[in-house]
UniProtKB/TrEMBL annotation:
It is found in: Nucleus. SUPFAM superfamilies: ADP-ribosylation, WWE domain. Residues 55-137 form the WWE domain. One of its GO terms (molecular function) is NAD+-protein mono-ADP-ribosyltransferase activity. Residues 156-348 form the PARP catalytic domain. This is Poly [ADP-ribose] polymerase. Its EC number is 2.4.2.-. InterPro entries: ARTD-AVP (IPR051712), Poly(ADP-ribose)pol_cat_dom (IPR012317), WWE_dom (IPR004170), WWE_dom_sf (IPR037197). It comes from Cyprinus carpio (Common carp). PANTHER family: POLY [ADP-RIBOSE] POLYMERASE, PROTEIN MONO-ADP-RIBOSYLTRANSFERASE PARP11. Its main location: nucleus. It comes from the Eukaryota.
């Protein structure tokens, strides 16, 4: 038979915290089941438990404001850390550390070395190079904002000649007595197995394509969690009429089936390990064949199939970067993203 008691006031219908909501619920349960003397005993223990755990629970910002972390680039514009392909942390990561100690200093080990984050000073310092960036915490006000100057490549490669940023691209003929010409020639003959006479070797200089290539490489390394990713110098034979378009816009990896000569290993752009194979796909009426030597991010590859539109068409996980003719001894590579390609040399 239950104990008769004077009813307690009902729990606060709008508790101001999750802790009050939990206590109110417990009071109601004790009233229904055990009676008043059990209520008081339970509330005391709940209060003590809450106080004991208070120091162990990590502080959490319960506001709905979406806080983000930004760094100040050389251009003077603040960019979100997650929009930088080189970023080793996200805003969520920094928020967790910040809430633990808003005035603290943390050191992160990255592939590029140790990075010190000082929340009190609002700085990020590369401990090896001493390079410092300003950082700040702010809420996002511009949706869809992307980093447009992530400093992956601020200047053209050192070996480029008389670079002109006002032109889409430049082509420079290499002198036969230059070391660059001789290195390319040896590569074409040795690795490329080409014995045809070489009329000229020219370097392509397109800073836009170069920066896109560098950015893609860094992005894939971050996605894969690697400090480097496999890159190869590969050959592509083409007609002379296509050279201007390739030098300006890069290779078109998304040609329609009607324009493709073949797509045995996938519907992308084909490159060959050997120049002797690639040169077969160059047809010119003048009798001079055009051979392009490209820097290609091949990454992790798999054997391709004729209906592959990406290197992961038959897989749930995005783990491959290219398709090949033979996974063990590849001689043909198929690339589906033009940003994985930088057309570097034209040989005739």
């Amino acid at each position: 038979m239950g104990m008769l008691c004077t009813p307690l006031p009902p729990p606060n219908p709008n508790p101001t915290s999750s802790r009050e909501r939990d206590l109110s619920l417990c009071i109601s349960l004790y009233m229904d089941i055990h009676g008043l003397h059990k209520i008081l005993f339970g509330v005391v223990h709940l209060k003590l438990a809450a106080l004991a755990l208070e120091d162990e629970v990590e502080y959490m910002d319960t506001s709905e404001t979406p806080w983000y972390w930004y760094y100040k680039a050389k251009c003077g514009v603040w960019h979100r850390v997650e929009d930088d392909p080189k970023s080793f942390m996200s805003s969520d990561d920094l928020e967790r550390y910040y809430h633990r100690n808003p005035q603290g200093v943390i050191i992160m080990n990255t592939a590029g070395g140790e990075i010190q984050i000082n929340f009190a000073a609002s700085t990020q310092i590369h401990l090896k190079t001493g390079k410092e960036k300003r950082i700040k915490r702010s809420f996002q006000t511009d949706t869809g904002f992307r980093c447009k100057c992530d400093e992956i490549s601020q200047s053209p490669p050192a070996h480029w000649n008389d670079f002109d940023s006002e032109t889409p691209y430049q082509i420079f003929s290499l002198r036969k007595d230059s070391s660059e010409y001789q290195i390319v020639e040896r590569f074409v003959r040795g690795d490329g197995l080409l014995h045809d006479p070489i009329i000229s070797i020219k370097r392509i200089q397109n800073l836009d394509l170069w920066e896109l290539f560098c950015r893609k490489k860094v992005q894939l390394m971050r996605i894969r969690g690697q400090s480097d990713i496999k890159e190869q110098m590969l050959f592509h034979g083409t007609d002379a009429k296509n050279v201007h378009s390739i030098c300006t816009f890069n290779f078109n990896c998304r040609l329609s089936d009607k324009k493709r000569k073949a797509h045995v290993y996938g519907k992308g752009t084909y490159f060959a390990k050997h120049a002797s194979h690639a040169i077969k796909y160059s047809n010119t009426r003048q009798g001079t064949k055009v051979l392009l030597l490209a820097r290609v991010i091949v990454g992790k590859y798999k054997r391709g199939h004729s209906d592959d539109c990406t290197p992961n068409d038959d897989q749930d996980e995005n783990i491959h970067d290219s398709c090949v003719d033979d996974a063990l001894y590849p001689k043909i590579f198929v690339i589906f993203d033009s940003n994985q390609i930088y057309p570097e040399i034209i040989s005739k």
